Amino acid sequence: MVPVALGIVLALVACVAIGLAIRARSDVDQHRAAADQAVAALEQQSRSSADAQAVQTLVLASMEEGVLLFGPDGAVVFANDSLSKHVGDVPASADLLLPNALRDAVRRASSIGSTTIAEVETGAPTRWLRATAQPVGSEGTILLVVRDVTETRRLDAIRRDFVANASHELKTPVASILAVAETLGDGALSDPAVATRFIEQLERDADRLGRIVADLLDLSRLETGSERIDRVAIDAMAEEEVARRTEQARKAGISIAVHVDGVPAIRGSSRDLGLMLGNLIDNAIRYTQAGGSVKVEVRADRETVVVRVSDTGVGIPQRDVPRIFERFYRVDQARSRETGGTGLGLSIVRHVTENHGGEVTVESELGQGTVFEVRLPTAPAAP
Ligand code: ADP
User: Fold this and answer.
1) CATH 1.10.287.130 domain locations along the chain
2) CA atoms of 303 and 311, how far apart (whole Å)
3) 331 CA distance to ligand 1 centroid (A)?
4) pTM (two decimals)
5) Which of 88, 209, 245, 260 has the fewest CB atoms within 10 Å around its CB?
6) 383 DSSP 8-state letter
7) Local confidence pLDDT in tens for the 383 residues of the chain
8) 374 CA to middle of ligand 1, Å?
9) For a pocket test of ligand 1, which of 219, 283, 285, 332 has the largest count of ligand atoms closer than 8 A to its C-beta?
10) Which residue stretches of the chain are H helix?
11) Residue spans in the chain of domains classed CATH 3.30.565.10
12) CA–CA separation, 25 and 266 (whole Å)
């Protein structure tokens, strides 16, 4: 503030001086206009530097990161509003800074004269803080910036798990293909009956690889959103998706029915909504025993279109229900694999639903059956 006040005083002094000089001249009016202009320019300059300072203060106050400035003696000379969210009460000096790892970072930055980074786990519930301590100028001032990286770390862990799981899923059929090829090469080819069995195995593994890769590609595309450029008649689409699977259901000894009310078209991606319906109906068939039934219903409910896929199948244990939409989560690994599951179907369903501003819910009873319900708004959700 001092430089601004000083600037204003200097500006006024300059204006008075200009005014006096001008008055001594003969053409008073002309020079007064020039003086007025000079005064306006100086005032503008003072205002700009005051504005710049106000902007700086606002920026620091609205930052998510905590900012702490220590003077050469270690005393705190500035702390922004966010700091206490990260480290609790603002300490009076570097020696009182907590957690310890942050204090150590400040000390190290001060003693070695270069930037030091520390990451520390703190508090309950646990949060991860990442702090950067860096010397400013040559006087021994240290700037500490503290960021909450809990969410970034959580997402990193999910990504790492996903890569590990995806690699594992891909490795299994690849290993099987290699083993079968080796066996065929070692002589199994000369026995036609054995060779046929192994070749069928190769086809199954290749098919499985193809399905995993296709689902992974769909999932990665869906993570960036759905292109909502079509007017989609979900009722007609449900009828088509059921018709496409009637033969599969018949072979499995399952009856399948579809009931649709006329519903308004929704704005969305027909490709993605088709994937969503297909996955729900496939699952209903795959997790239902012979003699069971699957029903697909589409109806309107106020501003939403409701798609209900119910089956009389194996059901899902309550403890697993919250996790079934996770990528690669399966209740019964063997049954999923046997029936050609990739563990990604419901994850795709959830992404498509959310991309269309809707929600998906599930109700299930072990041994009795499962109902998935997807609600999609007919009016496009606000961006
Ligand atoms: P998958 O390819 O294994 O079927 P999904 O992501 O489609 O993978 O489903 C995840 C898990 O949820 C399945 O492995 C299965 O255990 C369970 N599940 C999904 N749909 C049903 C259903 N209709 N009935 C019973 N269990 C189901």
Assistant:
1) 152-224
2) 26
3) 7
4) 0.73
5) 88
6) -
7) 334 433 332 233 233 223 323 343 444 456 556 657 766 776 777 677 888 888 888 888 889 999 999 999 999 999 999 999 999 999 999 999 999 999 999 999 999 999 999 999 998 889 999 999 999 988 899 999 999 999 999 999 999 999 999 999 999 999 999 999 999 989 888 888 899 999 999 999 999 999 999 999 999 999 999 999 999 999 999 999 999 999 999 999 999 999 999 899 999 999 999 999 999 999 999 999 999 999 999 999 999 999 999 999 999 999 999 999 999 999 988 888 888 899 999 999 999 999 999 999 999 999 999 999 999 999 654 44
8) 16
9) 283
10) 2-23, 28-62, 83-87, 100-112, 150-185, 192-222, 234-251, 270-286, 333-338, 345-355
11) 227-383
12) 79
Task: Decide whether any atom of ligand 1 lies within 6 Å of the 343 Cβ.
Answer: yes
Q: How far apart are CA 330 and CA 266, in angstroms?
A: 31
Largest CA distance in the chain: 121
Residue nearest to atom 20 of ligand 1 (CA): 283
Query: What architecture (CATH level 2) is domain 152-224?
Result: Orthogonal Bundle (1.10)
CATH T-level assignment (fold) for domain 227-383:
Heat Shock Protein 90 (3.30.565)
